[in-house]
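Entry for the shared binder. Reason: the reviewer on the internal report wants the predicted structure included alongside the sequence.
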Amino acid sequence: MKSSARSGSASKAPLCANFLSWLLVRPIFEDQWVLPVHDRGLIRRWFRWYEAHRMKIALDDIAVSRPIFIISLPRSGSSMLQDLLCAHPSMAYITNMMYMFSDCFCAAEHFRKRLQLDARGERFLRDSVEVGAGSPADPVGLWATWLKQDPFALEYRPCHITDFTGAEIAAIHDAIRRVLWCFGGANRRFLCKTPALLPHLLLLRDLFPDARFIHLVRDARQNANSMLKLHRLCHEQWQRIRARRPGMPDRPTFVPYPRLAGLPELIERFGADDLRTTAHLWNEAMEFIQAVRPQIPENQFHEVRYEDILARPREELTRIFRFLDLPEPAAGTIYHTRIANVGKVHHQNQYGGFETVERICGPTLRRYGYA
């Protein structure tokens, strides 16, 4: 039986669906991080063999039609919005189980469902958000592989469709078609969010000409502070993982901010763990979106503020479903349970430095309606 997680330390043991979940999935869940770090070699080899020799994955009749991308800075509420939208019966998405076994995710997802492999608990971010093996992932590493990006490099490296061969583009589409297959194939819409994609909005437009983009904005005063918290917690979690598993290789410091053009200079000037860095990054991100927005067809771009979703969740989600050409989920579904819980949190953050953020972001804050 599955139970809800409680807020608290990330080291608290996750709740498991059954003994196999405890044995196989729990250690991976405990090592949750931005990138998968726990290599369950024997399980992975079994999944690879099973997918190659026992599964009939038919993709011929599956098309990547009107995929949906949530574009935002980190800590803008994109996980909340993704969870709400993924409750729609038409959605398909990369689960955490798929992300853990990205080279054999069809088999991994098959066995997750068949054997009820699951472990649930609070994210390592300690923000009262419960996740499990079947929850929608933030697949930073997958997109880094697909777009030939180094997730540890800070430099802005713009990608263009001409940087990819036809075979590489087909491989990205095929991977997403496999995600759709895991959810039943036909009539499913692929949905994904990862803030790392923000600088690559125009590339996504070219890779998926009929895509729909939801730009989610959060007040810079909260967002800049929360990005700092994310940076610190990512570092702390990596240290915990290394302490539990001394054999883990050392890695460069990971900075969980989108690779916008000004990022290296900001880190050189202020450091990654500085409110001025994240405030300037917020400003640059909003300016970047405003610059490229005219190049996205109007019917493929929707902008919404996080605070408006909190204040009017049903109204704002109705607008989003209308933009996506999707009916609202029927009454009694998990979607309505989730939307009823929007805005309910079990922790409070003590943020500050608002005057610093206002000095840096003032005009852009006002443009987005933040007093």
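Summary line for the report: The chain has one domain: 58-100+136-367.
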